[in-house]
Design goal:
This protein is α/β, with parallel strands linked by helices and 622 residues long. Helix content is 43%, strand content 14%. The chain contains 23 helices and 18 strands. The longest helix is centred in the last third of the chain and has 21 residues. About 3% of the residues have low confidence.
Length: 622
């Protein structure tokens, strides 16, 4: 299946961001500082710049890792920080995307090594491969969507770097060269030679960046269009730099770049952005100029009415679609979406729309997951039900609400049409991410289930009438693999069921052995069990979940499979999840798929297969 980035390029022009260094200088960073190390010392500054470009209309942002290779970092005594700086650069960009709530692509930025090559210097081209792979592996670990090799002036170095990256990952690659006034690279290569060499490496996007300015870029786009059928990228500087008041300034205005954008598209460019001297104002002007040529968002979020409730007897409220499926013992497919960390729900809504088309039954929405501030689960649930037409399960924690707020929010949720609640105690607060925030916990998840069931009887926690009874379907969670001892976890599960829980959702499991061990210990369950599954993305993620996250135990054989998979780890993680689901289906009422890094592709693939199999089974039993 073609990568979403390449699919998007086929739809029409894609606007990237502008300069990072120029913006850091404008915010007080000195020219003699290591710009890549700002990821570690002032991450909020880098994220601010990413957010500004997203707000301006960029659909692709580059990580602040242009010079984060072993050669360049050694100039600052930071050569042992390659992994940390690159991972942090990718993390900052991901967080900016999440805060802004836009479905932008994140490109891992890789610049030239800065080494002096033989015979003029001591370094051979072959020695570049290892440092490139070191940088690529760190970027991929933290979830970049593609790689962009930019501002290379030596074609030999670029081809070695691209080939090295290909050995450790299969992400799409954008490769950009810088040319001089004669339209040659500093190493003397022509546009034709550059295109020929990069096509031989099967690079899907070939382009130009930095250099002099937009006019030269247009000339180069024209030549590339004659020499390649690959996608063409163009990200020029904002003209010639000049020194004004002790600072470097660039003269090309945003309106000039707006004109360049339309001309570049007409000449054949598909990926357009800016390099040195360009600002969010330049990107905003380009966005406005291209508005008529840009395709719609990657997923069109078309309003669709929520499914009609299933009627029951006149004296009982109608069943939701989820409740009806569970009652009929039909297999349920649920996927968890985390709310955005900002006020823009676009990315989550687009993910929900894609999942709806794949065949998901219900969307789970976390409640300030990992004790970090996010949009309320209730707010996102309402948007999904109204705009996407999917039922939702909101996770609801008494950690952040006193007893009055718990009941108030639940009554409001019911009035807004939210019927499914997963009662959770909530993750522990961490001082590092929640300074001055205090937890409440007037009740735990067991007490919360009791409140919900009393509301279903028409009274609040104190026994005071609330008028018409609510009709909540109440879920509880269970952690078969900890962090509590299994005896304690089973005792809590019994208390949750005694309090009135209508269904159970497990924390993630990875093997049939884990599931069967839990079922043997739990005995016959009186309510449906929905199995939690995480499609692993990488070996690093598997190790982190196993060793650092409470409630996860990734068996050694699974972690070993992920380790052996190398750069195909995401595909292996999907295969592991698929195998487990097939084995577990006869034992559970449904599957609860949890996504990583806001990526939905694995959940969509699993949902499509499950939905197709379920339709076949239902047809054969009809």
């Amino acid at each position: 299946m073609e990568h979403p980035f390449l699919q998007r390029l086929r739809q029409g022009p894609l606007l990237a961001d502008g300069a990072m260094g120029t913006q850091l200088f404008a915010r007080g960073i000195r020219a003699d500082q290591c710009l890549d190390a700002i990821n570690l010392s002032q991450p909020e500054l880098v994220q601010e710049i990413h957010r500004a470009y997203i707000a301006a209309g960029a659909e692709l942002i580059e990580t602040n890792t242009f010079g984060a290779n072993r050669f360049r970092l050694a100039q600052y005594g930071l050569e042992d920080q390659v992994g940390a700086i690159n991972r942090q650069g990718a993390r900052i960009a991901r967080e900016a995307r999440e805060v802004m709530g836009e479905a932008v692509f994140i490109a891992g930025a890789i610049g030239p090594s800065g080494a002096l090559f033989q015979p003029l210097g001591p370094v051979s081209y072959a020695e570049v491969a290892g440092p490139v792979q070191e940088q690529v592996e760190a970027l991929v670990e933290r979830g970049v969507d593609l790689l962009i090799f930019e501002t290379f002036t030596d074609l030999n170095e670029l081809t070695v770097a691209v080939a090295a990256a290909r050995q450790v990952c299969d992400l799409p690659i954008v490769a950009e060269m810088s040319f001089d006034d004669s339209l040659h690279t500093a190493s003397g290569h022509t546009v034709f030679q550059v295109a020929e060499a990069l096509e031989a490496l099967d690079v899907p996007v070939i382009g130009v960046n930095c250099g002099v300015g937009p006019q030269q870029a247009l000339d180069l786009i024209g030549q590339l269009a004659h020499h390649t059928r690959r996608f063409i990228a163009a990200m020029p500087n904002a003209g010639f730099p000049v020194r004004v008041g002790g600072r470097i300034s660039y003269v090309a205005s945003p309106s000039y770049f707006a004109s360049f954008a339309t001309s570049a598209v007409a000449a054949g460019a598909r990926l357009i952005g800016g390099c040195c001297g360009t600002t969010p104002d330049h990107i905003r002007a380009m966005r406005e100029a291209l508005q008529g040529t840009l395709p719609p968002p990657r997923v069109v979020v078309a309003p669709r009415p929520a499914p009609a409730p299933t009627p029951t007897s006149p004296d009982r409220p109608p069943l939701t679609r989820l409740a009806a499926k569970l009652a009929r013992k039909e297999f349920v497919i649920s996927v968890e979406l985390d709310p955005p960390r900002g006020s823009n729900p676009a990315k989550a809504l687009q993910g929900a729309a894609r999942l709806r088309e794949a065949g998901v039954d219900v969307i789970n929405i976390g409640d300030n997951v990992m004790a970090r501030v996010r949009m309320s689960a209730l707010g996102l649930a309402l948007l999904i039900q109204q705009q996407i037409g999917l039922e939702t399960i909101i996770h609801f924690s008494p950690r952040d609400r006193n007893l009055m707020a718990v009941q108030s929010d639940l009554l409001g949720a019911h009035a807004l049409g939210i019927r499914h609640v997963l009662a959770v105690t909530g993750d522990q607060l961490r001082a590092s991410t929640n300074p001055r925030v205090t937890a409440v916990w007037d009740v735990d998840s067991i007490g919360l289930i009791g409140i919900l069931k009393r509301m279903n009887q028409g009274v609040d926690y104190a026994g005071t009438s609330i008028g018409r009874p609510t009709a909540f379907l109440v879920g509880c969670s269970v952690g078969p693999e900890g962090p509590r001892p299994i005896e304690e976890e089973l005792e809590r599960l019994k208390r949750k069921l005694d309090a009135g829980a209508d269904f159970i959702m497990t924390q993630p499991l990875f093997t049939l052995e884990q599931l069967e061990r839990f079922l043997d210990r739990a005995g016959p369950l009186p309510v449906p069990l929905i199995l939690g599954v995480v499609p692993l993305e990488s070996y690093r993620q598997a190790e982190l979940l196993h060793h650092e996250v409470p409630g996860f135990r990734v068996p050694e054989e699974i972690r070993e499979r992920m380790r052996r998979a190398g750069d195909h780890a995401a595909a292996e993680g999907l295969a592991i999840a698929d195998e487990f689901i097939e084995q577990a289906r006869p034992l559970v009422a449904g599957i609860y798929i949890m996504t990583s890094y806001g990526r939905y592709d694995a959940a969509i693939a699993l949902t499509r297969k499950l939905a197709s199999a379920t339709r076949v089974e239902e047809a054969s039993s009809a």
